[in-house]
Amino acid sequence: MTEDDYDKLSSEEREARDKADRERERKEQAALPYKWRQELGELDLEVPVPKGTRGKELTVVIQKKKLSVGLKGQEPILEGELCKEIKLDDSTWSLEDQETVHIHLEKLNSQQWWENVLTHHPKIDTRKIQPENSKLSDLDGETRGMVEKMMFDNQQKQMGKPTSDELKKMEALKKFQAAHPEMDFSNAKIS
C-alpha cells in the first residue's frame, strides 16, 4: 500500500491497518533467531545460544556491512548483509551468562532508523517508531549548544524579550556607539 492510499483511508481503516501491521511485524520479529532494539545511533542484538556456551566456542564476525554469529563447526545462527553500514571500531560483542551473545552495533549514520538488521530479514515500518525522550546531557556538545540556544530564544520570544541574535546585535551596536561618541544614533533604525 502506498502512502497516498494509506492517507485516503478513514481513521477507523487506518487504525485497523496499523493494528494488523503491528501484529504481522510482531510475529515476523518473534520468529527471528535473535531479539533487537535500536536507538538513532546504535543497535543491540541478543542472540540465544545453548546454555553453558563458552566464548571460545563461538564464531562472531562483525564487518562494516556484514554480520555472522554461530557455534564453531556448525551452521551460523545468523549470517548476512547488514541493512546499513556500521562503525566497526565502536561495535562489539560479548557472551552473557553463557547463554546470550550480546552484540552492540554503532550506526555509521546516527540519524537513520534501520528497517531490519540483515537485509534478507523482515522489515519494520520505521515511520511508526516512537523514540524515547532523550536528555540534553545525551547530546554532543555542538548539538546541545544549538538546542539550548533554540530553547533560550523560544523562551525569550514568549516573554516578548530579544532573542540571542538580537541581543548580540544590540551589544555590537553599544560597543560601536561607545567607540564613536561623535556619531548621532538617535534616529537610526536597526533591523
From TrEMBL:
<comment type="function">
    <text>Required for nuclear movement. May interact between microtubules and nuclei and/or may be involved in the generation of force used to move nuclei during interphase.</text>
</comment>
<keyword id="KW-0963">Cytoplasm</keyword>
<dbReference type="GO" id="GO:0006457">
    <property type="term" value="P:protein folding"/>
</dbReference>
<feature type="domain" description="CS">
    <location>
        <begin position="29"/>
        <end position="118"/>
    </location>
</feature>
<feature type="compositionally biased region" description="Basic and acidic residues">
    <location>
        <begin position="7"/>
        <end position="29"/>
    </location>
</feature>
<dbReference type="GO" id="GO:0051082">
    <property type="term" value="F:unfolded protein binding"/>
</dbReference>
<dbReference type="InterPro" id="IPR037898">
    <property type="entry name" value="NudC_fam"/>
</dbReference>
<dbReference type="Pfam" id="PF04969">
    <property type="entry name" value="CS"/>
</dbReference>
<dbReference type="InterPro" id="IPR007052">
    <property type="entry name" value="CS_dom"/>
</dbReference>
<dbReference type="GO" id="GO:0005737">
    <property type="term" value="C:cytoplasm"/>
</dbReference>
<feature type="region of interest" description="Disordered">
    <location>
        <begin position="1"/>
        <end position="30"/>
    </location>
</feature>
<protein>
    <recommendedName>
        <fullName>Nuclear movement protein nudC</fullName>
    </recommendedName>
</protein>
<dbReference type="InterPro" id="IPR008978">
    <property type="entry name" value="HSP20-like_chaperone"/>
</dbReference>
